[in-house]
Specification:
heterodimer; A: 635 residues; alpha/beta; 25 helices; 18 strands; 42% helix; globular; B: 80 residues; mainly alpha; 4 helices; 61% helix
Chain lengths: 635, 80
């Protein structure tokens, strides 16, 4: 099996940095008494390159460390599998820890997934999973289709398989799982015809491919997350992911050596659903965005563009960054350079794909990279844990890893031709959903640079807000707004009053309750439309009261008086719904300190419980803001 | 590569796998003598050995090894 030994079974997580002396550091971590510090030490190890044996050791240490720690979120996951899972669960738990998730896992005995779902007394229901992962094998669904099946018969079998799986998803949801994950089916079929395997309606390989295509579409329609193991196997080779010996011997559908990479993929999806994916790609310039050193080689001397292999390699990185930007990833620059020289290259080089306007932040100076990354995160108002830092220089990478362990720093290969693959393999920007608002986001951040210039030019805050010419649009969280509203609820960490996460189904259910008031807010200004940036969910509570159970706002629009105008609108809507008061809880977290005083500032008074706040609507006077309501009014 | 070297490597792997630094393997050791060396951790052990030496045992061998010494002998044979 060619390639099997490459990296000693470490496929898929090659962009993680190699650990130095794993054994000693694991022993040191195990020796730490305090649980939060021990978890942090284990999490550091979980973020480094590891094979399955090291993963098992880390998991054993994790099992001896109960509870969560700072910045670690607990999540209950159930794995429903057609095969053995004992080798996958440790890998999932360890990879989760590396992404700030403490995963409490439960797995059905192999092949027992239907019973687990249907029997209300099963361990699955007792586990009360927030996420359910289906890891099944195609033969269980399509094995009965004869190779002689005509197009219609094959079609009917595929439809039945999709309907069956959708039924399983519905049962998982009914068991309380807001997150349902479906693993794509590996094509384990031997060649039967050859090329015709992709053509003959009843050929097993065609059936698997068709099932994956149809199921992915169904998953998209139902908000089910797609764990694309089949694509990973297409990239790495099926042998890297599946070993027929281990399937026969121990019913391992995913081979032992692929466990760590599998765990990473699962953890990425869960982290994405919990708003823990990265948001910003920070690029170095010399020998990264282009070949050579602009300060030494000059505009004509740097290597970039069509016509030479190395030039195209750097161009490919720019193209990849531009594609990421088009799906909403923010771009930034951190480079040790003379700013005027580097910016001139970005503006004037004829082959340059990325131009200054593509970047939301540029830190081009002689300061160290860690300080510049801090400045970039601050200027964008995002966490350092939202950054991915790409630099060809191993010394710079090591400095950043040491100073800012929360920044993701992919290990780049020596050859620029492989940069794109290395960054992509890190899976930093995994997304649980994709909306039009996402696509526009990177441009909006770039527009924030212009807003900052305006702020600098304006005399004071009021002048600045007035000059922005802001306009708010709003409406109830209906089917159209639900995907983006749910995404915002699940991704927002800073302006988030309760940090209670919701599935789309839950949001729909809450919005449908009689007397509930749900609102989305969209903010536009002279620099562009920010999209839906805030969501409120209020459900009827005690008589005459609405409970504000979720209020989130994107950090992009902090300090723009939107919280005041949103409350004005919410009060009007609450009054129209017949409510006399709004009651709100504030649940402090490590990340929402920015709104610690939100409710008292907005005129809420303390309720009976600590961190419970009440707003009497009878004496509420609309708060003055510089935000106009959109002419068309609420939709 | 001597028998002793291989035995030392196998011991290290099993200690890491089971988290038992006190494990001592001899050519005569059988699986039931080692606490928690169950059928699943045996498969894990076998894969770890395969990765370590860049070899692949036949399924029949994996299911017929009685003693650690037999595993050592098979490794030597496959590496020869």
């Amino acid at each position: 099996m060619p390639g099997r030994r490459r990296g000693r079974g470490r496929i898929g997580i090659v962009t993680l940095a190699s650990p130095q002396d794993f054994r000693a550091r694991l022993a040191a971590a195990n020796g730490v008494e305090a649980v939060p510090e021990r978890l942090a030490a284990l999490a550091d190890l979980a973020r480094e390159r590891r094979a399955f044996l090291e993963t098992i050791q880390l998991d054993a240490a994790l099992a001896r460390t109960p509870g969560a720690g700072e910045g670690v979120e607990t999540l209950r996951l159930a794995l429903l599998s057609a095969g053995t899972t004992d080798h996958l669960l440790p890998a999932i738990r360890v990879a989760g820890l590396g992404r700030g998730l403490r995963l409490e896992t439960w797995a059905a005995g192999y092949g027992q997934y239907r019973q687990a779902l249907m029997d209300p007394a099963s361990g699955l229901h007792a586990h009360a999973p927030e996420a359910v992962l289906f890891a099944l094998v195609a033969r269980d669904f399509l094995g009965a289709v004869p190779v002689t099946a005509g197009a219609e018969e094959a079609e009917a079998a595929l439809e039945a398989a999709v309907a069956d799986l959708r039924g399983l998803w519905a049962r998982a949801r009914a068991a309380g799982a807001g997150l349902v994950i479906q693993q794509s089916f590996l094509d384990l079929e031997p060649e039967l015809f050859g090329g015709l395997d992709a053509v003959v309606p009843g050929a097993p390989a065609r059936l698997v491919a068709a099932l994956n295509a149809r199921l992915a579409a169904a998953a998209g329609a139902e908000g089910v997350l797609w764990l694309d193991v089949a694509r990973a196997a297409a990239r790495d080779g099926l042998d890297a992911w599946h070993d027929p010996l281990r399937w026969l011997q121990a019913k391992m559908a995913i081979r032992m050596e692929a466990g760590p990479a599998y765990g990473e993929m699962v953890a990425r999806l869960l982290a994405a659903a919990r708003g823990r994916s990265r948001k910003c790609l920070v690029l170095d310039l010399d020998n990264t965005l282009w070949g050579g050193v602009i300060g030494d080689d000059g505009l004509a001397g740097i290597v970039l563009g069509e016509g030479s292999g190395p030039g195209e390699a750097h161009l490919a990185l720019q193209r990849y960054a531009r594609a990421l930007k088009a799906r909403g990833i923010i771009l930034a620059i951190a480079s040790k350079n003379e700013a005027s020289v580097a910016e001139a290259a970005l503006r004037e080089h004829p082959e340059m794909l990325l131009r200054p306007g593509d970047f939301a932040a540029m830190a081009i100076n002689w300061t160290d990279k860690a300080a510049n990354l801090r400045a970039i995160a601050e200027s964008l108002n995002i966490g350092l844990d939202a950054l991915v830092f790409v630099d060809d220089n191993p010394v710079e990478r090591a400095q950043v890893r040491e100073a800012l362990p929360m920044v993701a720093v992919p290990e780049l290969p020596a050859d620029p031709a492989l940069y794109v693959r290395a960054i992509a393999a890190g899976g930093y920007f995994e997304a649980a959903s994709f909306t039009a608002d996402d696509a526009a986001r990177a441009g909006q951040y770039a527009a924030n640079r212009e807003r900052a210039d305006l702020a600098a030019a304006a005399g004071d805050m009021e002048d600045f807000l007035g000059a922005l010419a802001m306009e708010v649009d709003f409406g109830p969280v209906d089917a159209l707004a639900r995907p983006r509203a749910t995404q915002l609820i699940n991704k927002t960490n800073q302006f988030n009053t309760t940090t209670i996460r919701r599935s789309e189904a839950e949001v729909a259910e809450m919005a449908a309750r009689p007397g509930a008031v749900t609102l989305w807010f969209r903010l536009a200004d002279r620099f562009g439309d920010n999209g839906i940036v805030s969501v409120m969910l209020m459900v009827p509570g005690a008589a005459g009261e609405l409970e504000l159970v979720n209020w989130v706002m994107s950090c992009r629009v902090f300090g723009r008086q939107l919280e005041d105008e949103a409350l004005n609108i919410a009060v009007e809507a609450a009054r129209a719904a017949g409510a006399g008061a709004i009651r709100a809880d504030f649940v402090p977290t490590e990340k929402n300190g920015v709104i610690r005083d939100l409710f008292p500032k907005l005129g809420f008074v303390p309720g009976a419980e600590p961190q419970e706040w009440v707003l009497d609507l009878a004496d509420y006077a609309a708060r003055p803001t510089r935000i106009a309501r959109k002419e068309t009014g609420p939709r | 590569m001597t028998d002793a070297e291989i035995l030392e490597t196998l011991t290290r792997i099993l200690r890491d796998l089971l988290g038992e630094p006190g494990i001592v393997l001899t050519p005569a050791t059988t699986r039931p003598e080692v606490p928690r060396w169950d059928s699943f951790s045996y498969v894990t052990f076998i894969v770890a050995v395969e990765v370590e030496y860049g070899i692949k045992f036949h399924l029949t061998d994996v299911e017929s090894f009685e003693t650690v010494g037999e595993i050592v002998a098979k490794i030597k044979e496959l590496k020869a």
